[in-house]
Specification:
CATH class: Alpha Beta
Strand content: 15-25%
Shape: globular
Number of domains: 1
Largest sheet: 3 strands, parallel
CATH architecture: 2-Layer Sandwich
Order of helices and strands: HEHEHE
Helix content: 40-55%
Radius of gyration: 12 Å
Oligomer: single chain
């Protein structure tokens, strides 16, 4: 995932939305990858949005890692 996101960010989109709606749990490696993506996006002035990670264990992991402060988290793509 880390490489795919980095490649997408290299194309300089205005916004990159990652669909995490099918993700039930985010482990430490996932948090590290998302933190890296958020940092890279911020340095490149690209918005990063996590879709479908607004509740449950995924939301708790993102909040514990303070990622909710770095990226927008929305329930669906229509909410972007």
């Amino acid at each position: 995932m880390r490489r795919a996101v980095a490649d997408e960010l290299l194309s300089s989109p205005g916004l990159l939305a990652l669909d995490l709606s099918g993700v039930n749990r985010i482990d430490g490696d996932g948090i590290d990858a998302l933190t890296s993506a958020a940092t890279q996006a911020g340095e490149s002035d690209i918005g990063l949005c996590l879709v479908g990670a607004h509740k449950g264990p995924s939301a708790a992991a993102l909040a514990a890692a303070d990622l909710s402060e770095l990226v927008e988290i929305v329930p669906t793509l229509d909410d972007i």
